Amino acid sequence: MISKHIQCYVCILSIALGSVLFAGEAHAVTCTAGALSQVFFGQSGANVSNLQQCLIDAGYSIPAGATGYYGTQTQTAVKAFYLARLNLGDWDGRSVGPQGRAALTSAVRTNPTQTRAKPTGEAKSKEYAYKKVSSEADLLTYIDASEGMTYAMGTGLRATFADEDSAVAPTPAMAPNAVPSSEKTVSDRFSSTNVQVSGIDEPDIVKTDGENIFISPQSYGPYFRGGVTTVDAVVANDMMPVPNYVDPTTKVVDAFPPSDLSVISEDEIKENGEMLLISDTLLVFTYTSIVAYDVTNPESPKKKWDRKYGENVQLVTARANDGVVYLVTSTYIYRDRPCPVVPLMGAGMVLPCTRIWVPEHLEQLNTSYSILALNPKDGKINKEITFAGKADNTVVAMFEDNIYVTHQESSGSRAVALDFFASGLTDLLSDSVRARIATIVSYDISDPSKLEEISNLIENEQAKMNNNEALRFETELANRFVSYQALHARDIDRTVVTRIAVDTLTIAETKSIPGHLLNQFSLDEYNGYLRVAVTVGERWGGGTQVNDVYVLSSALEIVGSVLDLGFTEQVYSARFIGDRGYVVTFRQTDPFYVFDLTDPLHPKMTGELKIPGYSSYLEAIDHNTVLGVGRDGGNVKLSLFDVSNPALPVERAVYTLKESWSEVENNHHAFLRDSEYKVVFIPASNGGYVISYDNNKLSLKAAVSGYDVRRAVFIDQYFYVVGDEKITVLNENTWKEEKTLSL
Questions:
Q1: What average pLDDT is seen over the chain?
Q2: pLDDT tens digits for 218-259?
Q3: Who's near 338: CB < 8 A, 6+ residues apart?
Q4: What's the CATH number of domain 522-742, 2.40.440.10, 1.10.1040.10, 2.130.10.10, 1.10.10.10?
Q5: In terms of Cα–Cα distance, which of 617, 382, 603, 660 is closest to 518?
Q6: Strand 529-536 and strand 523-526: pairing?
């Protein structure tokens, strides 16, 4: 059900845009000029959507976007197109014939979307602050005042943890927290999970300590991690029979030397999920709990403690740093019982309303987030902070001294709409109506309530007009609002950034900045500054985006920026490495940007390279070389970028896999680099690939097939390709198969 606030806001925008289909499927449409067909006024469907997007791409305004309905806005655009391209001023715009389709195809090719207005507005930080709730009644009052907050069960939270020095270092020779588990021979060279930076570990489904490999198969049945159903629910909904279903257990494999390769424990650790290995403690993060095992004797792991998540709680992520585990949990806020919040049961974590922070400025809330500092030895919580927000495009980034919490600011679009109605229609409205709008804006009520009042006022005013006046008013209003939105794009699309001190878990600073983030690699802290890559504009595409890179001070003020990169495109990957930054944007080609961040107050985009496809993961091989993993058409593509001349980046080598997808594209944990042997590992649908990047070339060293390959680790000179069903051991000196083990 659409809430009252959403209905009101759509109503306001529908007046301005001439359609209630603002934000939705229309944003995902792309123009396929070769598929244009004859359509008529009043029709709806994919052919209409295609026509509309082609008109938009050719530079003709349809304020509501490619809605799929041929209405008055599309008719106006068609008339304008026929007049400009075919000199047919008497065309009524109610259809598009063969001559029009041919001309439109040509127009799209010669008049790309760059003819559209770029999103603009100042790139500046805005004040934003939190306050503590005084009581449950205070929290309920806040929720009610937000008028129409929408609840959503999904967390929408992506977490990032990083180190103070975010320069990518070679894969560490030994995982920092790993300790030999016996007196048996243990290699001093072994891989750790691929993380954003060294020093802060991230959970994954495979871990190694240099002797053993811990493997936690993902459940593909009803209890798979991140799933939505239980066995009972599956049966009740007639989805599939699940007789005698058993959730897979975590296995311990004696891996080194390869001659000892065998499963030494498969029933003791009964849970499965992503894991952290901290000294001799293995933490398993299941869908419902955290379980800790003592793996001093890996053949006989002993359960140390377990903590179930509270009601309506989901674990978002966890990180390990200096022997402390930092957890991020999300709790769905129920209107009838918003607190206490219980992130973990049995850990003294019954948090009353007075422990919850909320934004001082009225924001929509549907989730509370808790950051917890946990002792892995006993499962006790040392400190915590809980704050309310939205389950929408939120990123959490942890560095040595600070944790950054980001979420979408919901008030920007409403504030811009109010400014528009107050100042953008002065010649269309009478003095009395403008005065009434100014009075409404001054009321001490929520922005949604103000918009509802103004909406009713304008609707009443429009009802007094004759048909011709009403049509002119509506058309003019729509076009002005689109222009006003473009001028204030950086005021509409904004992200709240909060800096929390790690040592105390207290809020140190909060600001909002323009744009929205892609993922954890969009943030990086270095030498006291925070570097951020954002996309400004429509979140679902639609050809009105630009991309910015900001440098923020410790007070989260924007002190340096590079603006307006990749018009009509959006960020697909980012990586900040020391005094350099790399960003890939994409819509049809892959602009690979290089940034000089030596002077934080004056960052510069020094070089740009446009190539087909895109890279969705970037790995710095060294100061002069960056490896990109992504897609070109339907195939997985690896690119080796030479950035020795920052002003002239070069795609030095390309290697294409006949694979439609690799997990590396959206999960960097699936990627592995062995800097000593100069190879990387890429899992894909048909198997796993070991690819050399030596001598600025990309070449295939080995391929492993026949089972569902998930990860790889190396121990000494041996490369272990791990799947849920099998392990294959390769000798890195010859890349020949040494041994296999069925799981």
A1: 83
A2: 754 443 333 333 334 333 344 444 444 567 899 999 999 999
A3: 136, 139, 140, 143, 353, 368
A4: 2.130.10.10
A5: 617
A6: antiparallel
Question: How many alpha carbons lie under 13 Å from residue 480 in its C-beta half-sphere?
Answer: 20
Instruction: Calculate Rg over the CA atoms of the chain.
Output: 28
Among candidates 620, 585, 574, 523, which has minimal Cα distance to 194? 620
**Sheet bearing 324-332, strands edge to edge:** 130-132, 356-359, 381-389, 367-374, 324-332, 313-321
pLDDT of 183-218, one tens digit each?
566 788 999 999 988 889 999 999 999 999 999 987
Phi and psi torsions of 689, nearest 5° = -125, 130
Domain made up of 31-115: CATH architecture: Orthogonal Bundle (1.10)
Q: Are 40 and 70 in contact (CB under 8 A)?
A: yes
Residue 260 CA to residue 274 CA, distance in Å, equals 25
Reading the block at residue 361, the tokens are 């400025």
CATH 1.10.101.10 segments of the chain: 31-115
Give the Cα separation of 73 and 62 in Å (integer). 6
**Gap between the Cα atoms of 573 and 551, Å rounded:** 17
Dump pLDDT digits (tens) for 248-290: 899 999 999 999 999 999 999 999 999 999 999 999 999 999 9
Q: Which residues in the chain are classed under CATH 2.130.10.10?
A: 522-742
Whether residue 66 is predicted with pLDDT greater than 70 in this model: the reply is yes
